[in-house]
Amino acid sequence: xLVKDALVEATKRIKGxxxxxxxxxxxxxxxxxxxxxxxxxxxxxxxxxxxxYFELIKRRVNNEPIEYITNSASFYGxxxxxxxxxxxxxxxxxxxxxxxxxxxxxxKRPRIxxxxxxxxxxxxxxSLLIPDAIITAIDISKEALxxxxxxxxxxxVHIEFIHSDLxxxxxxxxxxxxxxxxxxxxxxxxxxxxxxxxxNLALYGGNVGDEILRKIIDIYEEKSVxxxxxxxxxxxxxxxxxxxxxxxxxxxxxxxxxxxxxxxxIGRS
Length: 269
Known about the structure:
This protein is of the alpha/beta class and 269 residues long. It is built from ten helices and eleven strands.
């Protein structure tokens, strides 16, 4: 089979799964052949050993995210390694990073701690955008930390990684910024089939969904951190507001590009 014919067939097979089937067919072929998109376009009459390629297409037809099939995800203009041990980074998390960067502006050598680093994209981007920052990234999953360390090495940044359930193994206090994109989906909530490939530890936040968010707020208070920046579910603004209503903490919420409530920042005056 020629490259162009394989692309036509692959596009047909994933048309019901993807909104951009032709593009995904090309991405998967480029990944399979270890070639770039220009090569695919300029060699469409080349013969192709298609069996392995259509194994990748079969995985996509079964709703496996293309990022896990290619072990690659684009985030904040950079490329990161991903596999099923860590959550696929979402574009809305770039807003969280921008918020942390703007908040840390003017702080010399800001001390930043991330809870639930996953693939490491938040800590790594903060390290790239705030070169003098001192960053520690924490995760309960050793497998996720392996992915994060691989990405840190790829992007040539120095980050301290700690295996811990929240901050059980991290005892520092009085630092500048605590940041997290924690699990915030309720345990019984049904998920899109594609999310079934992503790790439960990175998705489910408890019976209600905001339990880990509340624990992170408690850590912020207990450790006398200056700022906390956190992503949350689109329907959790009222829950977070109610949890903070009896404290003197000021909270500012922000929206994502779709106009949905997506996170908050709290700070000490």
